[in-house]
Amino acid sequence: MTFSFPLDGGMVELCKSLAKKRLQKERLDYSLIRALKCAELLEKGFMFRPESPYSVVCSDVVPIALEPKSTSQLSSSEGEQ
């Protein structure tokens, strides 16, 4: 029977650090994809029923209305035509 003990904890700490970064990236990816899919649903006029257990999935995704163009932007774009 053989036992192996790392003499320096550097490799263990590096492994933990890499695992932590990977988990952070996966959480970010999940959040971004969830927001995109919820936005697609909202854009197409769909949503989860409020009584559905899945309604919380998109509950924090809020659409932001586009800012209307200022009158100076409108007049300059009309002059280009």
Task: Note the topology.
Blueprint: H1 10-43, H2 71-79
Describe the structure.
With 81 residues, the protein is mostly helical. The N and C termini lie far apart (84 Å). The chain has helices spanning 10-43, 71-79. The model has no long low-confidence stretch (mean pLDDT 83). The chain has two helices and no strands.
Give a nutshell description of this structure.
This protein has helices at residues 10-43, 71-79.
Low-confidence spans: pLDDT under 50, at least 5 residues? none
Q: How many beta-strand elements?
A: 0
Percent in helix: 40-55%
Order of helices and strands: HH
What is the mean pLDDT? 83
- Tell me, what's the shape? elongated
The secondary structure category is mainly alpha
Looking at this protein, list some descriptive labels.
mainly alpha, elongated
